[in-house]
């Protein structure tokens, strides 16, 4: 951690042995981890775009120092007093080209399909894709998928087999407001063929930033029936509220913080189709400026 210190990693002040125990003093991260942030559901897009590019920059810095993290997941990304991210927990990290003294296998649910060890930067890129997927879908959805594939007498084997087949995580499952462009970027980092993934964490960072939408969307109800869209730019004075119910997607617009009023031409029925597809289409219309 000292060798790879940057603004994106948890700062170490000292390390010493106290009897049989090792004591490492680090900076305090008062806002917990990203696992807490996505524990009840997806993080909102504003937070995702605030956090994930910086995580990629941090991992890119590690790789430039010859360090593989090998344990990238929401629990190991912490938030400081300003809610900026810092990467921690280097318990499985190693220098590229060396053999670990603490066991070869890294964090199993995010191990690359091609190997049972993270031995190159491509392994961390894959884990970054898993991390992004967890933030965008929420921990409950990730855990449910994990339980589905961890079946039989050898749960770990089930997870590995599903990963090798590209079935875990499920690349078809996303909240309706995640754009097609962002889905493609995350799915590419999860490609079962390492040669088709992004070559560096910095390249993944750049690709994600290019997908930033016009509005930041978030689910505002535990049932997933209400979505709010706030403008990315302060120059945009419109906000949006989308609801589903009785076979209808209803779109409402607020101008300059005023009351939400129904946008009649954007309110559509979704009989015979999944509500999420109809919501996604409404969001696509809003992003494209087709809803007035």
Topology, number of strands: 12
Shape: globular
How many DSSP helices? 8
Please compute the radius of gyration using only Cα atoms.
21 Å
Describe the biggest sheet?
6 strands, antiparallel
Secondary-structure-derived class: alpha+beta
Order of helices and strands: EEHHEEEEHHHHHEEEEEEH
Q: Helical proportion?
A: 25-40%
Report how far the terminal alpha carbons are from each other: 51 Å
Q: What fraction of residues sit in β-strands?
A: 15-25%
Can you give the mean pLDDT?
90
Low-confidence stretches: none
Question: What is the secondary structure topology, with strand pairs?
Answer:
Layout: E1 12-18, E2 21-26, H1 34-37, H2 45-64, E3 67-68, E4 77-79, E5 85-87, E6 94-95, H3 121-137, H4 139-149, H5 155-164, H6 180-189, H7 201-209, E7 215-219, E8 226-231, E9 238-245, E10 248-255, E11 261-262, E12 268-269, H8 275-288
Antiparallel strand pairs: 1-2, 3-6, 4-5, 7-8, 8-9, 9-10, 10-11, 10-12
Helix pairs in contact: 2-3, 2-7, 3-4, 3-6
């Amino acid at each position: 951690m000292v060798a790879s210190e940057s603004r994106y990693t948890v700062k170490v002040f000292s390390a010493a042995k106290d009897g049989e125990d090792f004591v490492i003093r680090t900076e305090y991260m008062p806002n917990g981890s990203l696992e807490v942030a996505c524990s009840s559901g997806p993080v909102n897009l504003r937070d995702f775009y605030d956090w994930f590019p910086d995580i990629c920059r941090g991992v890119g810095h590690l790789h430039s120092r010859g360090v593989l993290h090998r344990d990238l997941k929401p629990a190991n990304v912490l938030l400081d007093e300003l809610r900026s991210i810092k990467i921690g927990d280097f318990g499985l990290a190693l220098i590229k080209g060396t053999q670990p003294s603490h066991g070869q296998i890294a964090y199993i649910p995010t191990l690359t399909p091609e190997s049972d060890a993270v031995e190159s930067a491509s392994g961390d890129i894959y884990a970054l894709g898993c991390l992004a997927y967890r933030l965008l879908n929420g921990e409950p959805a990730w855990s449910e998928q994990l339980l589905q594939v961890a079946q039989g007498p050898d749960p770990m084997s089930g997870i590995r087999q599903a990963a090798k087949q590209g079935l875990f995580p499920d690349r078809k499952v996303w909240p309706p407001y995640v754009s097609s462009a962002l889905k493609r970027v995350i799915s590419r980092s999860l490609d079962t063929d390492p040669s088709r993934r992004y070559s560096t964490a910095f390249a993944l960072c750049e690709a994600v930033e290019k997908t930033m939408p016009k509005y930041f969307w978030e689910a505002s109800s535990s049932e997933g029936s209400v979505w709010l869209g706030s403008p990315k730019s302060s120059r945009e004075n419109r906000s949006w509220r989308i609801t589903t119910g009785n076979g209808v997607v209803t779109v409402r617009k607020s101008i300059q913080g005023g009351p939400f009023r129904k946008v009649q031409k954007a309110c559509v029925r979704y009989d015979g189709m999944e509500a999420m597809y109809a919501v996604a289409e409404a969001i696509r219309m809003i992003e494209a400026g087709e809803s007035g």
